[in-house]
């Protein structure tokens, strides 16, 4: 769905932020992780067409980012910003979610249907006339997610989706991601919450100093302790607990660890 070919990018000549990256993205849900300053956000802006590569090319579907406007790409790829206040500007929840679908050419009836379905998905269907600025930060984030879902793009990128979310909020976002995956959407995220990555994303890419230094299934990536340490990324809490208990395998969920402990206990008996 996305082909990144030898892409580099510099804000200033001689200082590369993204360095010769080649990656192919299919429909596997994908997390991009790494420390602040690793180049994750810049890379995502390149995918969205908000920035143009200094060299190389990015193909979204059949379109080259170098030859396409962000407005055109908006029909194919949606980005939920890290800070909801950078994205929200309408006077009601419904207007906010309607803006994207209408702006990319959906007819009013379809746009409203998609908007209402998206708001139901995030749990804001009963707050249509509320001013978005009166929402909590966590609900603003959900509103921004709904705004992108309503556009019905094949690719959806979530920048730090769990910010300001409590346990219930994270569960809601987990359900949203699962629903999008079932619809054959490519869901990507840039995120610092490794526990959320472990539970929800099939593929993980580690960025360090503008390079993709590790790419594979999430379990494979979290098994690379030395590379993760060099990139200053800690494995998920459940993975660390498994190591502390003496297990060598990589656990991604509490259920996996509990089932293994139960099996070992039966064997011991």
Structure write-up:
With 269 residues, the chain is an alpha/beta fold. Helices cover 41% and strands 23% of the residues. The protein contains 11 helices and 10 strands. The chain has helices spanning 40-48, 70-73, 93-103, 108-122, 137-149, 167-182, 194-200, 218-222, 225-230, 237-244, 254-268; strands at residues 2-12, 15-25, 30-33, 55-60, 63-64, 77-80, 155-159, 186-190, 203-208, 211-217. Helix 6 (167-182) links the parallel strand 7 (155-159) and strand 8 (186-190). 41% of the residues are buried. The mean pLDDT is 94.
C-alpha Rg, in Å? 20 Å
**What is the averaged pLDDT score?**
94
Strand order of the largest sheet: 6-7-8-3-9-10
Number of helices: 11
Structural class: alpha/beta
Order of helices and strands: EEEHEEHEHHHEHEHEEHHHH
Shape: globular
> How much of the sequence is in beta strands?
15-25%
Query: Which spans have pLDDT < 50 for at least 5 consecutive residues?
Result: none
Distance between the termini: 50 Å
- Percent of residues in helices comes to 40-55%
Total number of beta strands: 10
Reported for the largest beta sheet, the result is: 6 strands, mixed
